[in-house]
């Protein structure tokens, strides 16, 4: 993966188990990408706006992309997506919805609000590894991302 230390992936996920599985998959696949973990939408917005604990831009650089769970406590994923896509400084960051919901309404709303992609959380280790590898290959191998 050719992501510099200045441009991490922001993973917004309230499930500790899912977070640990993603960390495990990255390690298993030898993908050494910086990942910033936020466990709720409010924390993610603080990171993106470089507020509170994230006020130092050197320690909290803008992410190359956001992997965003939909169903979060307090500030949900759709609200975070709306904030990102309605902010001049953030809207260029690709946002991938990472959800266990296959509800067509959630998928439609996500794309209407500006999601770059919608991925169903894999239900097996084999599938998780495949999805993480494909994300790596596409977003950091083939796609051309804007400067952050």
From TrEMBL:
Pfam families: Response_reg. The keyword RNA-binding does not apply. The modification 4-aspartylphosphate is found at residue 69. Residues 8-136 form the Response regulatory domain. InterPro entries: CheY-like_superfamily (IPR011006), Sig_transdc_resp-reg_receiver (IPR001789), TCS_response_regulator (IPR052893). Keywords: Phosphoprotein. GO terms for biological process: phosphorelay signal transduction system. It comes from the Bacteria. This is Response regulator. It comes from Dictyobacter vulcani.
């Amino acid at each position: 993966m050719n992501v510099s230390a200045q441009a991490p992936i922001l993973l917004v996920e309230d499930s500790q188990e899912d977070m640990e599985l993603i960390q495990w998959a990255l390690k298993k696949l030898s993908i050494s990408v910086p990942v910033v973990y936020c466990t709720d939408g409010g924390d993610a917005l603080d990171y993106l706006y470089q507020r509170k604990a994230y006020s130092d831009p050197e320690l909290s650089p803008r992410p190359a992309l956001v992997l965003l769970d939909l169903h979060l406590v307090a500030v949900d994923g759709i609200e975070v997506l709306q904030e990102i896509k309605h902010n001049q400084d953030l809207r260029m960051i690709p946002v991938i919805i990472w959800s266990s919901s296959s509800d067509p309404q959630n998928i439609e709303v996500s794309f209407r609000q500006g999601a770059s992609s919608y991925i169903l959380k894999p239900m097996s280790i084999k599938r998780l590894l495949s999805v993480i590898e494909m994300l790596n290959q596409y977003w950091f191998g083939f796609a051309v991302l804007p400067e952050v």
